[in-house]
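Q: Here's a chain of 102 amino acids. Please give me its 3D structure as tokens.
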Amino acid sequence: MFLIILGMAVATYLTRVTLLVFGKRVNFPPLFLRSLRYIPIAMLSAIIFPAVLAPQGAIYISAKNPYLLAALATVVVVRLTKSSVVGIVVGMGLILLLRIWL
């Protein structure tokens, strides 16, 4: 088991170090560089959408899905207030209340 973990650590380290060491010497195409901007939103979407739309493992789009209701309300609050902190507080409060109420 230790050798597997060590091998995974070495593979992860090598892939990151390779880009850091040779990244300045390699000219990446402009399309590749532009596409890097979309990685954070893609990763966030990959984490959030399954948790909101399929909280029990199966897609559950309903007015009784507290995660979906809280997410929609949070999006509206963030759009209106332009504040992520307010959105987080509202979202957490709503999910707490909706899980108790529904």
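Q: Can you summarize the key feature?
A: The radius of gyration is 20 Å.
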